[in-house]
Amino acid sequence: MERTWEELAPGVVRCRLAGWDETVGAVAGDESVLMIDAGPDTATSAALLRELRALFTRPVRHLALTHLHFDHVLGAPAVLGATRYAATGARALLTPEGRSGLVSDATAHGAEGDGARRDAAALTAPDIEVDTSLTVELGGRSVVLASAGPGHTGADLVVHVPDAAVVFCGDLVEESGEPQAGPDAHPSRWAAALDGVLTLGGPSARYVPGHGAVVDAAFVRSQRDSLARRFGNDTPTGPGARQCPDTDGGA
Ligand SMILES: [Zn+2]
Questions:
Q1: Ligand 1 mean position, distance from CA 187 (Å)
Q2: Shortest CA distance to 68 belongs to which of 52, 87, 53?
Q3: What are the start and end residues of every segment in region (Disordered) (predicted)?
Q4: 79 found inside a domain
Q5: Rounded to the nearest whole angstrom, what is the distance from the C-alpha of residue 152 to the centroid of ligand 1?
Q6: pLDDT at 243
Q7: Is 77 contained in some domain?
Q8: How far is the CA of 104 from the centre of ligand 1 (A)?
């Protein structure tokens, strides 16, 4: 498959996968590579790993899962030997019902059923759940994983690369369409989650959406405001906004 890896900074890349246009990213240090999301199936992620090895000649030792939607995580079982990170709450979503939900979402979007069932069964719980934030050392480069949600799901993780001023946002930000809010979204918390993302990255960072082209802070702020209007809340912006009470009452 022809695939283009977009270089955002030296050692910081992302690609947009064919099909559902989801982002897979990677950050390389002197010693190891952190992969961000794993694509929709293990065949795809095995190919992605081969490409990352050719790009960086260092092992993928870390895998950050931005959230547990099939198009971002069903490739994870192929990322062998990597420590897997997700936001707190992700383990609790990997119930038998959660796994069958991943399969039904995948097949509803056109994935092949046997492969999706096999990948979902092989998907292990994350090794580390990030409650607030966690710094991962890659050798000469530190990357910050931060629990940013709930918002798009109950367990949303973002990845900040401070020296490159890049934030991988998962589906908390989407550029190629309206942010997708399914039954597992926490709509009234989403705007506050984006306040936290903007605080993390700052005004001059580049923000990598889960789907679509790389955007700037103004785009994220505008999407934050439109989500607040769309879901009828007016969560205050600025530091401390994430402390607001959970008022959505939904899944
Ligand atoms: Zn998603």
A1: 13
A2: 87
A3: 229-251
A4: yes
A5: 7
A6: 31
A7: yes
A8: 14
**Residue 245 predicted with pLDDT over 90:** no
Give me ligand 1 centre to Cα 41, in Å.
15
Confidence class for position 250, pLDDT limits 50, 70, 90: very low
Q: Does residue 251 lie within any of the structural domains?
A: no
Cα(244) to centroid(ligand 1), Å? 23
CATH number of the domain encompassing residue 173: 3.60.15.10
Packing angle between helix 217-230 and helix 187-201, nearest 10 degrees? Answer: 160
pLDDT at 216: 98
The predicted-structure confidence for 169-213, as pLDDT tens digits, reads as follows 999 999 998 888 999 999 999 999 999 999 999 999 999 999 999
121 CA → ligand 1 middle, Å: 19
Distance 14 CA to ligand 1 centre (A): 17
Backbone angles phi, psi at 139, to 5 degrees: 95, 100
> By residue range, what is the domain housing residue 128?
6-243
pLDDT of residue 2: 61
Q: How far is the CA of 171 from the centre of ligand 1 (A)?
A: 5
79 burial level (CB within 10 Å; 0-12, 13-18, 19+): buried
CA of 54 to the centre of ligand 1 (A): 28
CA of 22 to the centre of ligand 1 (A): 9
Alpha carbons 156 and 67: distance in angstroms, whole number: 5
User: How close is the Cα of 73 to the center of ligand 1, in Å?
Assistant: 10
Dump pLDDT digits (tens) for 34-54: 999 999 999 999 999 999 999
Mean pLDDT, all residues of the chain = 91
Q: What is the mean pLDDT of residues 130-149?
A: 97
What CA–CA distance (Å, rounded) separates 200 from 144? Answer: 9
**Peptide bond preceding 187: is omega within 30 degrees of 0, i.e. cis?**
no
Query: Is residue 250 one of the residues assigned to a domain?
Result: no
The count of domains in the chain is 1
